Amino acid sequence: GQIFPLGGLELQAYLFSGHTPGDIVLLDRKDRILFSGDGVLEQLWLQLPESLPVKEQVRSMECFLPLRCEFDWILSGHSREPQEAELFDVLYAAVREVAEGNTEGDKAYEWFGGLAKEHPYGKEPRRIVYAEEKNPDENR
Fold first, then answer.
1. What is the model's pLDDT at position 133?
2. HEC string for the chain
3. How confident is the model over 33-61, as a mean pLDDT?
4. Which residues in 45-73 are b (16+ Cβ under 10 Å) and which e?
5. Which of 16, 19, 104, 130 is 20 to 30 A off residue 50, Cα-Cα?
């Protein structure tokens, strides 16, 4: 909830753990932009050694739902252009599917650190990459 005044612009910070434990998002209410870092983006990686269990991503998104009406655009850490805020909505639905085990049809995904699973959602190339089994206390 800390507010950072930036000379006519204010960004409010919110904890948004999932991709990594200390992730934050910054909300610009004036311009209706969510600066999401790696917490909300088209290709969300949750399989990294430092990533938290998928249910933590769900929890962060659920905590942020009351603020969803305050942004129309998302700028992530990997976007070249602003994404429409519906990205948050479809990502939230997809993360919930993974957390609930609705992963039939998910495919193996090779990355530089090994093998994980990918859960496609929405328009291509959107996907969540996650580790199949992860001990919730493993990275804390």
1. 62
2. CCEEECCCCEEEEEECCCCCCCCEEEEECCCCEEEEECCCCCEEEECCCCCCCHHHHHHHHHHHHHHHHHCCEEEECCCCCCEECHHHHHHHHHHHHHHCCCCCCCEEEEECCEEEEEEECCCCCCEEEECCCCCCCCCC
3. 95
4. bbbbeebbbbebbbbbbeebeeeeeebeb
5. 104
Q: Is the pLDDT of residue 43 over 50?
A: yes
Vertex 17 angle, CA 16 and 21, to 5°? 140
| Higher per-residue confidence, 33 vs 78 | 33
Q: Which of 19, 1, 21, 23 is nearest to 11 (CA)?
A: 1
Position 108 pLDDT exceeds 90: yes
Q: How far is residue 89's CA from residue 65's CA, in Å, rounded to a whole number?
A: 9
